[in-house]
Design goal:
5 helices, two-stranded antiparallel ribbon, single chain, seven-stranded mixed β-sheet, Rossmann fold, about 190 residues, about 30% helix, alpha/beta
């Protein structure tokens, strides 16, 4: 792992020099990346969670959003705090979403979660945001692909975003800084 010196959003380190205030040349906001983790099937990306936990342990505010998982009454208004800097939220619905046919209450819960996610990303509240299974929510027609593309394009520069899920749209692969595809090779 490489250590990087980061300036906090909106802040900088100033060094007085002959009465003038100058910004330290090593401190500038480092632009966040868009990473995609995809596979041919639904799976849990352990290394994404390790990355999220590592970033939060180093003091970066991290948000993990599970769009298609529910069943525990969590939702945007009742997040789980996993340590000091890791916030975890799920869709506030009865169970997990596994197909495009959802009841109106589930659709409303998913849209509320999506609106909350867009808001906190646009406000720059988190340095890293994991959008788990968002590709399936797009594939199911529950979230609009162009809304996500717009969010990624206009997010604050310091916000890193990780997208996970199968059936990742080509447009998201095109805007990603890094794409990781997991494959299973079966030996016969």
């Amino acid at each position: 792992m490489v250590s990087q010196l980061r300036a906090l959003p909106g802040g900088s380190l100033h060094m007085p020099l002959s009465g003038e205030v100058r910004q330290h040349p090593m401190l500038r906001a480092i632009e966040g990346t868009v990473q995609v983790f995809t596979s041919q099937h639904r799976t849990f990306f352990t290394n994404v969670m390790v990355q999220a936990m590592r970033a939060s342990e180093q003091g970066m505010p991290v948000l993990v959003v599970q769009f298609l998982k529910g069943g525990i009454g969590q939702g945007p208004n009742n997040p789980t705090q996993m340590g000091q800097n890791l916030t975890w939220i799920r869709c506030e619905c009865e169970g997990c979403i596994s197909n495009p046919q959802v009841i109106p209450e589930t659709q409303a819960a998913l849209l509320a979660l999506w609106q909350h996610t867009q808001q906190v990303i646009n406000e720059g509240q988190y340095g890293l945001v994991v959008l788990d299974e968002l590709s399936l929510a797009i594939d199911f027609g529950l979230i609009k692909e162009n809304e996500l593309l717009n969010l990624l394009k206009h997010r604050p520069a310091h916000v890193e975003v990780i997208l996970t899920g199968p059936q990742m749209p080509e447009s998201l692969l095109d805007v990603a800084d890094q794409v990781t595809e997991f494959r299973r090779n079966y030996v016969v």
